[in-house]
Amino acid sequence: MSLRSRAEEVTNAVVELLGTTVAPEKSQAIVKIVEKAMIDSYRDCTERNTHVAVACCQEDTDRAHKIAEEMRRANTALIANLSSLR
């Protein structure tokens, strides 16, 4: 399931919880806000994990850097894919 789909699910759940209707353009604006929050959270998590990988593999810095670089590449690919969905 894409982040866009999850963002739409969250938006629909919030609107339903509020017991109201939302104009389609407002709904799409909410979806974008939720999607951005999810992307930002993913980036923060990836950055933390990269720091942990480097710290844990301090004795083997080459391995730590390889892990960190692979995480950065995966993050870049995900962001590029998500950006193309907009």
Shape: elongated
Order of helices and strands: HHH
Radius of gyration: 17 Å
Q: What class, by secondary structure content?
A: mainly alpha
Number of strands: 0
- Please identify the oligomeric state: single chain
| Main beta sheet | none
Describe the 3D structure.
With 86 residues, the chain is an all-alpha fold. The chain has one domain (3-85). It has three helices and no strands. The chain has helices spanning 3-18, 24-56, 61-85.
Which SSEs are present, and which pair or pack?
Blueprint: H1 3-18, H2 24-56, H3 61-85
Helix pairs in contact: 1-2, 2-3
Please provide a brief summary of the model.
With 86 residues, this protein is mainly α.
Any descriptors?
86% helix, 86 residues, single chain, elongated, mainly alpha
